[in-house]
Amino acid sequence: MAGNNESTGRKKIEIKKIEKPSRRIVTFSKRRKGLFTKAAELSRMCGAEVAVIVFSPKDRLYTFSHPSANSVIDRFLAQENSSSSSTPSESECIKVDQSGLVDKPIENMELEELQCYMAAMVEFKKEAKKRANEMDMRRMATRELFPLHPVVGDGYAEDG
């Protein structure tokens, strides 16, 4: 095997959309857990305030935050509001795609672009709160329809 140049370690994968839906769901779940783990480590190790908001391919909302998503987003918006006096018109704004990403890093944006991005984040926060409230309402309705009953014993029926 001295002439074999293939490594058995991690392989570099091409970053593109996964076509098979079942593989896409599994990959989303694993990567979401990894993303949240990294966010928790960043918060714990560095004392950073973190908010990660993710919508699944099936439009489910997942969040990780420390101390809370609202406090992190409010802090971000307050900081942005204090540095800007007026928001440019929508026609002057950069385009934000469906995933909430812009085509260049925030560090390279001009003031007007940052103001547009902030306006988009405000709208995103409103929509996220609306969806979270809808999810809470669905959970409450589900609990009313299917209340949790305490399990007596170990939950298994005995033969007898």
UniProtKB/TrEMBL annotation:
InterPro entries: TF_MADSbox, TF_MADSbox_sf. Gene3D superfamilies: Transcription factor, MADS-box. Residues 8-68 form the MADS-box domain. It is found in: Nucleus. PROSITE patterns: MADS_BOX_2. The keyword DNA-binding applies. GO terms for cellular component: nucleus. PANTHER family: MADS BOX PROTEIN, MADS-BOX TRANSCRIPTION FACTOR FAMILY PROTEIN. This is MADS-box domain-containing protein.
